[in-house]
Structures are given as C-alpha cells and as structure tokens.
Specification:
Belongs to the protein-tyrosine phosphatase family. Non-receptor class myotubularin subfamily. It is found in: Cytoplasm; Endomembrane system. Its main location: cytoplasm. The chain has 656 residues and is an alpha+beta fold. The protein has 2 domains: 2-209, PH-domain like, CATH 2.30.29; 239-625, no CATH class. It contains 22 helices and 16 strands. The strands form 4 sheets. The protein has a 7-stranded antiparallel β-sheet with strand order 6-5-4-3-9-8-7, with helices on one face. The chain has a 5-stranded mixed β-sheet with strand order 12-13-16-14-15. The N and C termini lie far apart (73 Å). Residues 1-5, 25-90, 181-194 and 258-270 have low confidence and may be disordered.
C-alpha cells in the first residue's frame, strides 16, 4: 500500500512537471513570435529584472511609431533574421549539433574581454541556438574573443545600461554590449536608445536557461542522433551499457557466475559471511538507493526493512567494495534515526556485526573492530540529535569504533566556491598582488580539498593496513559519503584508475546511490529555486581526483581533459547521466532511452582523453594532503582567464 501511495504521489508530481514543461514550450513559441513582431512593429519589453525562469510572458508596452531614420533602419536590418542571411560570419567554428536549431543571429555585438590591467572590446556575431550561445569575432585571429556557453550553464543574466552580464555555473562572467556601446568611453552608462534597449531585452529572453529538466537540449540531441543513426545499428559504444551492478559485484568477488543472486554454497564455511543481491523492487527499501544492492545472505527481508527504517531517508548500510586480500568490506549508509527516546535497532546491529565479521581474523585470532567513519564534524551531530538523529553509539554495537572526519557541510562548501570565484575572476588579481595567497587561503577551498583527501586516505588505510571493515556516512549519505567511498576505492583499486573503471565508479557511487545532481548543481532550475541546496560536491570530488593524477602522473589512464569533460557535462544539459536526483527519477523519466550518456563520446573516441604516460600499477596510492602537494586546479579555475594562455601577449600586440 505504501508503495502504491508513493508511486501515485510521484506520478502526480511528474504530471505537474510535464504540464509545466508544456507551458514552457508554449511560451518559447510565443516568445519567438513576440520577438519577430517586435522587430517588425517596434514593440519593447518591460524594464523588469531579466533573470529568472520563463514562468510567464514579460509584459509588453507599445512604443509610439517614430519617424524612420538611418539608425533605426540599420538596427532592424542587422537584427532581423532575414537581414542577416547574407551577412553572417562564415568562419563560425562551432557548427551545429544534431537537433540544434539557430534561434537568432546578431551582428555588431561587442564582447568585453576582462583582464587584470585593461579590458578588450571585441566585435563579432552572436548566435543563439536551442542549446547554446556562441560569439565569433570578426577578426578570426583574436583567439580569446570567441566563446560558447550552453544555455543550461547560464545562471543569472543582469543588465548594466547597454551591457549584458551573464553569470555562468562554470565560474565565468560574460559581458556583452550592443552597437559599439562599450567602445565609446563609458558609453554603456548612458541612457539607451529605444532600439538598443529593445534588443537587449529580447535577446536576453532568448538566452534564458530552461527552468525544467525536461526542456533541456539533451532530449532533442539524443532524439535527432537516433534518427540519423536509424538503420545503422546505433553508436559503436553506448555509455549507458558500461555499468552493470551484477558484473561489477562479480568482479569484486561478492557474486559468482550462476550464483549471481546468492553467493551461499552448500559446503561453505558457516562462520564465513556470504553475500547476495538485494532487489530494491519499486524502490520499496529506499527511494534514493539503486535497484540492486549487496547485503549479507544471513539478513532476512524483514530485518533489512527494519534497518532501513532506522536510517535517515531509509538509506540502510549496504556494501560497495571488498578488499581482494583481507576480505574486509566498505559499506555506506546515512545517519541513524534514534528518535528523541534514543531507540536502538537490533536488525541494524546484526547487519553491522556481519560487516565486522567479514574481515579476516588477525594473527591473534581476533576480528578487527568495525570502523564507523562519520564524515561530519562532531558538533554537527549534536544538532542532528535534537532532531532524533545523530551518530551511532559504539556501546550499542559489538566491537565498533566511531571516527569523525570534520568535513564541512554543503553550505560552507558553497560559500567557499563563491569566494574562490571572486578571486579567480580575471580582473580580481594581477601578477603584482602580494595578498593573492592570503586571499586564496581565506577562501578555504584548498583546506576543504585537503580534508576530503585525508579523510579518504584514512578510510583506505583502515581497509588496507588494519584489515578492518568500514562503514562511511554523513547525514543523508549522498554528499560527503560518495566523496569518501569513491576516493577510497580510487586509492585502493587500480581498475577505477582506467577510463572505463572511473566511469563505473561514478555510475555506482554517485549516480546509482542518489547524489542529488539536480539540487546540488541546479541544471534545469532557476537560480532562485532552492539556492541553499546548491553545492560543489561533485566538483570537489573531481578536484581531488585531479590532485591524485598530479601526484601520481603515470598511474591513471585518463588525463585532465577527461576530468574537464565530466565537469562540463555536469552543467551543460547535453547528456542525461547527471540529470535528476536519483536512479528512480531517471528510470521514471526514461533517461537511458531519451538521452545520451556522458561516457558515449569518450568510449567512441578515447584518444583525446588518454594519458600518454599511463603505466598500470597495482600499488595503493595514498595521496598527500598538505599545502606542498595540494594546489589550485588551474585548468579548471583559470581556464577563462586569457592571460593564463601562452599566446596571450601575441593577441595583445595584435589588438593594440
């Protein structure tokens, strides 16, 4: 009955979302008509702030017909679709993707390239499509003037006179001006003429990012690619087929061939823990967990249900990895629900005891204790106790130790990234800034990265050095928990250092176990929709992986471009891998059928993503988490700064 009620509620929520999507598409069509009517009839948009979702049509007021003059006629010819056909920049390097449609071309747009010493105004053609905004300079030799930004990557658009300021989720801010406004000294601060003001508002309307996931370009992109590949057998490598839970758990030794759904043998040692797959059918155990999970064979369905009820969000402790030699296991969960009365759960205690007993006994014949790694700070658990939650009481569990890692919450991480974004802006610091390192330290970004790395190393050390099983959790088990368990496996298991293995790791620990991509990244949402839920959790994980590739440059098959590809995919709205908040939602929305996987282009053409110095090794890779070893990821945080590029001065000399 509970499942039926839950599914009915989800169906109702989905129907509401689909209705909203239909309304959005109607407004997109209506916006297109209004845009063309404005070009022909002289309508202007309201002076209302221009960031936010397309929830309703902006108010339109009629402008009195003015005598035709040279300026108005020129503006109309430049901005109208028909007037552009013969004047488009033919050196457009971006092209069009399958399913991508051009909405508008605009001539004589100025891109203000911000630099530390001075700014450069670059004129060119702005193109808006159903997927992205691109800008191509008239002077093709000016390498830093062009850009492309997916609509889904745009966060907020604001206006400063005749300037458009486009703040993006990838840390860059794009500044655009109309009709040479910026090339005239302080020209964009003057009151705009009616045509320029109209174009700014209308173009802004076209650049607003989709505020519904179903309206993202990923769906049109996949549909058109399938249409083009119809009868040709589909893609050579389909990223959606890369991860198989059964195959991965067989690789880890939990399941054996015909015993795919139970590893218990008739002649097995009864003292040894055996394993089976738990089917989370209709997501009855947990709506945010995957459909298949590994649990001890001795646990009954009812005991597992009781354990799930004892855990926040019903995210019970389940196994994700096993050490190939000492057989200890790595498990993950959410925090316990003790209630205000401090209740206990016998099934939860039995489950954790089974995880402890999976470890081999030491030379003294003693089983190592279970280590419960709580990613939070101790003070954070005190606040949760007031809500009836918190951390395990080691006295309630047999031979278990609790350790706190002290990783900050999502709000502190968001504040840290905001501070870092302000610091890495091209005009925020120059080469002579003596306070740069102090300002970088004050962002606390590198301190957070070091804390995450050292915590993951601690998990790996307990598993490898102590031969003890580990349970990792934070509050709900979908932010700091995947950071630690995924990094610990990267430290210990060489398979995950390959391109395919890393993709499997991300699919397993981040996608299937319900990291809230939609809430944390905000793709398909308006900037004002739950802003406190935003946090760079996945970006921090990728940063930590990059730190490891820097410390062990030959141990990883993939290179920096691969990590940047994954990072860009988080916010581009081009692939379906990181859409929605859980596996359940992606299944319900048929993401596997309707979108392309982020891994597909990598598998089809792995060359650009391979590390040419890769040498496979089975060694454990313990990262060093100190300021001598952990540095700012330049290719991520400074890639939009033209002064960081080697041919910067060549372009500067040409533009003088």
């Amino acid at each position: 009955m509970a499942d039926a009620v839950e599914d009915e509620a989800y169906c109702s929520q989905r129907q509401s979302t689909m209705d909203k999507l239909l309304r959005t598409k109607k407004h997109l069509f209506s916006d297109r008509i209004n845009f063309m009517e404005a070009l022909e009839q002289g309508k202007a948009m309201s002076k209302k702030p221009i960031s936010g979702p397309r929830k309703q049509e902006p108010p339109v007021k009629t402008i009195k017909e003015e005598p035709k003059n040279v300026k108005a006629t020129a503006a109309k010819n430049e901005l109208s679709s028909s007037g552009l056909r013969d004047s488009l920049n033919m050196n457009d390097p971006f092209g069009l993707l399958p399913g991508e449609t051009v909405l508008e071309h605009v001539q004589r747009v100025t891109n203000l390239v911000v630099m530390s010493q001075s700014d450069r105004a670059v004129q060119g053609v702005l193109k808006i499509t159903t997927y992205r905004v691109t800008f191509v300079p008239y002077d093709s030799s000016w390498k830093f003037g062009s850009f492309e930004v997916p609509l889904a990557t745009i966060d907020v658009i604001t206006r400063d006179g005749l300037m458009l300021l486009i703040a993006c989720k990838d840390l860059r801010t794009i500044r655009l001006a109309m009709h040479d406004a910026y090339t005239k000294k302080k020209g964009y601060d003057q009151l705009p003429s009616t045509p320029d003001f109209r174009w700014l508002n209308l173009l802004t309307l076209r650049m607003k990012p989709p505020n519904i996931i179903g309206a993202l370009f990923a769906f049109d992109y996949c549909a058109e690619k399938k249409n083009r590949l119809s009868g040709k057998g589909g893609p050579k490598e389909d990223g959606w087929l890369l991860y198989s839970p059964v195959a991965e758990y067989q690789r880890l030794g939990f399941l054996r061939g015909a015993d795919a759904y139970t590893s218990r043998k008739q002649n097995a040692d009864p003292s040894m823990i055996t394993w089976r797959l738990l089917k989370n059918s209709k997501f009855r155990f947990s709506p945010t967990y995957p459909q298949l999970m590994v649990v001890p064979s001795l646990m009954t369905e009812e005991q597992l249900v009781q354990s799930a009820r004892f855990r926040s969000r019903a995210r019970l402790p389940v196994v994700v990895w096993r050490h190939p030699v000492n057989k200890c296991i790595l498990a993950r969960s959410s925090q316990p629900n003790y209630g205000m009365a401090g209740n206990r759960s016998e099934p939860d205690r039995i489950l954790l005891r089974a995880y402890r007993d999976s470890s081999k006994k030491n030379s003294n014949g003693v089983t190592p204790p279970l280590h419960i790694i709580d990613a939070r700070k101790p003070i954070a658990t005190k606040g949760n106790r007031l809500k009836g939650k918190g951390v395990e009481n080691s006295q309630h569990y047999d031979n278990a130790n609790v350790e706190f890692m002290g990783i900050a919450n999502i709000h502190k991480m968001r504040e840290s990234l905001d501070a870092l974004k302000a610091l890495v802006s091209p005009n925020a610091v120059d080469d002579g800034d003596k306070h740069y390192h102090k300002r970088l330290e004050n962002t606390r970004w590198l301190k957070h990265i070091m804390r995450i790395l050292s915590s993951a190393r601690r998990v790996a050390e307990v598993l490898h050095e102590d031969g003890a099983s580990v349970l990792v959790h934070c509050s709900d088990g979908w932010n700091r928990t995947p950071q630690l368990v995924a990094l610990a496996q990267l430290i210990l298991d060489p398979y995950y250092r390959t391109i395919r293995g890393f993709a499997v790791l991300v699919e397993k620990e981040w996608c299937s176990f319900g990291h809230k991509f939609a809430d944390r990244i905000g793709v398909g949402k308006d900037a004002t929709d739950q802003p406190n839920e935003r946090s760079p959790v996945m970006l921090q994980f990728l940063d930590c992986v990059w730190q490891m590739t820097r410390q062990f440059p030959t141990a990883f098959e993939f290179n920096e471009k691969f990590l940047l590809h994954v990072s860009d995919a988080l916010i581009s709205g081009l692939y379906g891998t990181f859409l929605y908040n859980s596996e359940r939602e992606r299944i319900f929305e048929k993401v596997w059928e309707r979108t392309e996987s982020v891994w597909t282009p990598v598998l089809e053409n792995p060359g650009p993503y391979r590390n040419p110095t890769f040498r496979a090794t089975n060694h454990v890779l313990y990262p060093r988490a100190n300021l001598k070893r952990v540095v700012l990821w330049d290719a991520m945080f400074f890639r939009w700064d033209p002064e960081r590029h080697p041919d910067y001065m060549e372009n500067m000399d040409r533009s003088m």
